[in-house]
Specification:
It catalyses: (R)-5-diphosphomevalonate + ATP = isopentenyl diphosphate + ADP + phosphate + CO2. By secondary structure, this protein is of the alpha+beta class. The protein has eight helices and 16 strands. α1 packs parallel to α2 and α2 crosses α3. It binds ligand DP6.
Length: about 350
């Protein structure tokens, strides 16, 4: 018997950054975080998983290249899925997985988020796992737990040592703020030098900013941004988003040895956004940068044309600006099932 499922999962863009773990094995964070999940038609991972009695081992291909499936993360995910399986419980069923991103992998565009969210979702479908799967996605890659849901999603850091309450929760569905858009400015699509996993471990151990960030700054920002999302208050949302991005990169800069993810083009974009907002007398768009130089710009629909014109003018002739519509239809999706 052969059973196959294909699913897609979108990328999420954090407005309050996850940076630092209190448990490396279970991937439990030092702070809660919050993100917006992109539209399914934009940045996404498509994954097919096939189970068969004829396979002699588990195997995974990422963007056409065979990867080692015996990593701790893949094995933890497979073990957790199989322990909750209601289908294919016969141990003879091995699984073959093919995963494709429609965007640069590991260039600070949250590929691990959509990748592990999709992997866990597809395996959960295949093995008949029900209930919350965000905690399984989390043990693949922390930020992946937020891609399990659409709209605005928070990852509650939780307090339990077994990670049972460190899960993703939808703050508002994709229909709540449909005017919200995201423009992704691809500054560099090369693989980053310092992975998020290594970078956050070093920051947690050495940056003097981490303690206050986790104890007071992030908890307050989480409360404020959640309220701003509920009220569709873009001024507060944009202000907090840019401040948290700035602080995150300051944490990286104060890590020993320092980590720099931004480059001159990133900083040019930051200045441009600040000037544009100042000139307009209000926040028209808000930048945020993950562990890479690429900019993600949150903005309401009414400002998209003007902002795109601005970015195109400053970066003429390049394909720097790519436009991704935000909110609706951003849930993870099952697109094919063959049994
Ligand atoms: C800067 O989720 O990739 O994008 O849990 O070690 O796999 P691991 O890290 P990862 O880190 C993402 C960090 C970030 C911020 C965020 O998405 O919240």
């Amino acid at each position: 018997m052969l059973s196959s499922i294909t699913c897609t999962a979108p990328v999420n863009i954090a407005t309050i950054k996850y940076w630092g773990k209190r448990d490396e094995k279970l991937i439990l964070p030092l702070n809660s975080s919050l993100s917006g999940t992109l539209h399914q038609d934009d940045l996404k991972t498509t994954t097919t998983a096939v189970a068969s009695e004829n396979f002699t081992e588990d195997a995974i291909w990422l963007n056409g290249k065979k990867e080692d499936i015996n990593t701790t993360r893949y094995q933890n995910v497979l073990r957790m899925i199989r322990s909750r399986a209601t289908k294919l419980m016969d141990k003879k069923h091995f699984v073959h997985i093919c995963s494709i991103n429609n965007f640069p992998t590991a260039a600070g565009l949250a590929s691990s988020a959509s990748g592990y969210a999709c992997l866990v979702y597809v395996l959960a479908q295949l093995y008949g796992v029900s209930g919350d799967i965000s905690a399984i996605a989390r043990i693949g890659s922390g930020s992946a737990c937020r891609s399990v849901y659409g709209g605005f999603v928070k990852w509650e850091m939780g307090a339990e040592s077994d990670g049972s309450d460190s899960i993703a929760v939808q703050v508002a569905p994709e229909t709540h703020w449909p005017e919200m858009n995201i423009i992704v400015l691809v500054v560099n699509d090369k693989k980053k030098e310092t992975s998020s996993t290594d970078g956050m471990q070093r920051s947690a151990a050495t940056s003097p900013m981490m303690k206050e960030r986790c104890a007071t700054i992030v908890p307050q920002r989480m409360r404020d941004i959640e309220a701003a999302i509920q009220a569709r208050d873009f001024q507060t949302f944009g202000d907090i988003t840019m401040k948290d991005s700035d602080d995150f990169h300051e944490v990286c800069a104060t890590t020993d040895p320092a980590i720099y993810y931004l480059n001159d083009t990133s900083r040019y974009i930051m200045n441009l956004v600040h000037k544009y907002n100042k000139m307009s007398g209000k926040i028209k768009c808000a930048y945020t940068f993950d562990a890479g130089p690429n900019a993600c710009i949150y903005l309401p629909e009414e400002n998209v044309v003007e902002a795109l014109a601005l970015f195109t003018k400053h970066f003429p002739g390049s394909d720097l600006s790519t436009y991704y519509r935000g909110s609706d239809k951003s849930n993870i999706e099952k697109i094919e099932h063959y049994q």
